[in-house]
């Protein structure tokens, strides 16, 4: 009784949460997952029971990364608040059985529904949509076996009112597009493989009996993203055929993201000519073959553009300024620009230009002045070398973009020219980029705290100044211009890597330490930084960047040894908010010490390790999984035998699957011939967001979907 009375006295002297105003409590509750609010929190007291059912909390329900939700929780949630839900996002809930969508029929007032990545059959889709008469926005997957003839008349009536559709295709099909006669926004993701599991070549022809008349007359936004493969190209041409006959008058965003070569045809040329005559665009992205060598950009008209992507195009800086930026006029509206792989975009001409040639700083300055409101900028996968002219370094010019939230740069672009001139790379400070273990070099001792590094005057570097000027940057990618991941999409693992750019040889620990100035940094990617000697800068990032959620490190320092392992383990002890970790490094040893350090990341949900000749310790992995209860994805592609990998994978699944319904485990030899078959079974959410390496800055227009 004395203990109880003492606790009561403490509560009376302290602040009682329930004494806050309803407005403050609602704001606090908005950070709690909806399943917890409805199924747990509201049962604690009468006041919370009322607040948890407030319309501001039940109007929009987000389950897309609620990895603890299961079928029973969804059923109870729909039963309790189904009629109050107007927007429901279940994207990427791959672990839920297809019968889960049957409970969505209770959501009679749904206006927006995202089921991308969910198991869904034609019959279940028909039954569900037949009851959702108010639906206006829909996202679904179209898998093998989808049959549009199974859709009821009530379902088609609902689809006829849908104005926004996002459709991910895993089989050649129009899906539900022909039923959506009021489309204003159409997003298409083509993920069709060229071969079946049996090794048979697939055709891009649609199934017999499918309608070939999509209704585009009201279309305002058309977006298509293609995975590698010729079948995806064949199918997207069928979708474009109708557009080439009659271009919608209200079209203001036309975007096609296609890797590799996607040749222009007569139909696509007619489409582009029609667009040049009849529409004014606000967003544009085209395959490189459609832009290279053509005068298309000279004829297209723009209104108030907010997104441009010229990724992998041979567009020169002169054409960029003249035809796109229009001499600096009316580009204040541009918020996102992707020039990834656009190797000549900062040079006046593309002819006879070599990779090591200097950029034209006047072109970059025109870009910065004209597009002063840029929030997302991607300049990766190219050699952007600054000259020795004072004040014209790329980093100095980019520091004027005060609104930047995400930035991607090649490693060679951040080199301090003056410092390089004073101290060119020598055999003692350039790390050999080889896989051999025989090379021995002296390891320079680097200070581990920010104050000591300040004493080395690294603050005087242009990159340090750039990081200091972009205080609100949330996403940063520093990627070697010749870096390629060992895990391509539909091919065997790459066995050889290209050497880094000579200009990048001096980029190392001090540049990494400069990143620690980004207090609000949430996502960081570092790839192919050759002069990493100890990784000391990583510790500074762990200490200073407390909002860091995503970390991707690849090929840092010498490739024959993980020289930054000690610093990485120290860094991880401070990353309390880290959710996604991707490591790609040859000879990586995933042992007990590493996993013990990683266990400090209490919020970690997804782990991916890619390592040629890498090793793992099975007991350490099992202990890590037992200690980190939030981890639902564990992907390891190492140098271990198939037997070791399969045994560990089965042990993890058997031990933790019941408690973690979303658990996805793939442990497989990196150089095994069946790797591509294993990858095809990975849920698209994980594959696209973490397992496959790519630059994600300005990859899509901002707020394209949810």
Automatic annotation (TrEMBL):
One Gene Ontology cellular component: SCF ubiquitin ligase complex
Pfam family, one: LRR_FBXL18
Gene3D superfamilies (alphabetical): 1.20.1280.50, Ribonuclease Inhibitor (3.80.10.10)
Domain F-box positions: 14-61
SUPFAM superfamilies the UniProt entry points to: F-box domain, RNI-like
Any GO BP: SCF-dependent proteasomal ubiquitin-dependent protein catabolic process
Protein name from the UniProt record: F-box/LRR-repeat protein 18
């Amino acid at each position: 009784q004395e203990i109880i009375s003492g606790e009561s006295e403490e509560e009376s002297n302290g602040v009682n949460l329930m004494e806050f105003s309803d407005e403050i409590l609602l704001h606090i509750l908005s950070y709690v997952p909806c399943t917890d609010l409805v199924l747990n929190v509201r049962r604690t007291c009468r006041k919370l029971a009322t607040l948890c059912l407030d319309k501001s909390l039940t109007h929009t329900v987000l389950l897309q990364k609620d990895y603890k939700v299961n079928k029973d929780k969804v059923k109870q949630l729909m039963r309790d608040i189904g009629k109050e839900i107007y927007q429901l996002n279940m994207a990427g809930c791959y672990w839920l059985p297809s019968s889960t969508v049957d409970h969505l029929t209770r959501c009679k007032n749904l206006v927006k529904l995202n089921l991308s990545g969910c198991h869904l059959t034609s019959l279940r889709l028909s039954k569900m949509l037949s009851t959702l008469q108010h639906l206006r926005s829909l996202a679904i997957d179209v898998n093998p076996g989808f049959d549009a003839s199974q859709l009821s008349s009530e379902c088609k009536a609902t689809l006829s009112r849908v104005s926004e559709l996002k459709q991910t295709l895993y089989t050649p099909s129009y899906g539900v597009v022909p039923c959506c006669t009021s489309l204003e926004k159409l997003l298409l993701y083509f993920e069709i493989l060229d071969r079946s599991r049996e090794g048979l070549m697939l055709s891009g022809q649609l199934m017999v009996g499918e309608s070939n008349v999509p209704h585009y007359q009201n279309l305002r936004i058309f977006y298509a993203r293609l995975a590698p493969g010729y079948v995806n190209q064949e199918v997207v041409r069928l979708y474009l055929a109708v557009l080439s006959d009659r271009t919608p008058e209200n079209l203001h965003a036309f975007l096609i993201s296609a890797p590799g070569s996607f040749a222009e045809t007569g139909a696509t040329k007619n489409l582009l000519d029609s667009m040049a005559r009849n529409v004014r665009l606000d967003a544009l992205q085209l395959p490189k073959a459609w832009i290279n060598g053509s005068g298309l950009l000279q004829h297209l008209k723009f209104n108030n553009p907010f997104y441009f992507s010229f990724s992998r195009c041979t567009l020169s800086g002169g054409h960029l300024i003249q035809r796109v930026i229009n001499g600096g006029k009316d580009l204040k509206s541009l918020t996102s620009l992707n020039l990834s792989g656009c190797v000549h975009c900062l040079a006046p001409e593309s002819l006879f230009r070599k990779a090591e040639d200097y950029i034209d700083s006047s072109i970059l300055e025109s870009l910065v002045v004209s597009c002063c409101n840029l929030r997302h900028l991607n300049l990766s996968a190219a050699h952007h070398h600054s000259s020795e002219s004072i004040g014209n370094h790329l980093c100095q010019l980019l520091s004027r973009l005060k609104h930047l939230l995400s930035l991607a740069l090649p490693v060679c672009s951040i080199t301090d020219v003056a410092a390089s001139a004073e101290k060119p790379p020598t055999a003692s400070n350039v790390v050999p980029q080889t896989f051999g273990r025989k090379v021995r070099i002296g390891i320079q001792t680097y200070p581990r705290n920010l104050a000591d590094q300040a004493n080395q005057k690294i603050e005087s570097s242009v990159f340090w100044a750039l990081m200091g000027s972009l205080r609100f940057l949330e996403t940063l990618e520093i990627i070697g211009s010749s870096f390629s991941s060992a895990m391509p999409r539909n091919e065997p693992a790459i066995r050889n890597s290209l050497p880094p750019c000579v200009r990048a040889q001096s980029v190392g620990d001090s540049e990494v330490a400069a990143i620690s100035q980004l207090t609000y940094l949430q996502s960081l990617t570092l790839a192919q930084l050759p002069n990493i000697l100890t990784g000391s800068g990583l510790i500074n990032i762990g200490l200073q960047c407390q909002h860091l959620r995503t970390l991707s490190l690849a090929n840092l320092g010498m490739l024959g040894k993980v020289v930054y392992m000690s610093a990485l383990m120290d860094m991880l002890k401070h990353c309390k908010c880290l959710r996604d970790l991707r490591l790609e490094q040859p000879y990586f040893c995933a042992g007990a010490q590493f996993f013990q350090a990683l266990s400090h990341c209490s919020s970690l949900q997804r782990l991916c390790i890619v390592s040629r000749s890498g090793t793992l310790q099975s007991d350490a992995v099992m202990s890590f999984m037992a200690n980190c209860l939030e981890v639902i994805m564990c992907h390891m592609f190492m140098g271990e035998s198939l037997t070791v990998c399969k045994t560990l994978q089965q042990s993890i699944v058997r031990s933790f699957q019941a408690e973690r319904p979303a658990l996805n485990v793939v442990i497989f030899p990196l150089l095994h011939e069946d790797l591509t078959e294993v990858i095809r079974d990975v849920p698209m959410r994980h594959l696209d967001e973490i397992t496959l390496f790519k630059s994600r800055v300005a990859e899509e227009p901002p707020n394209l979907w949810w």
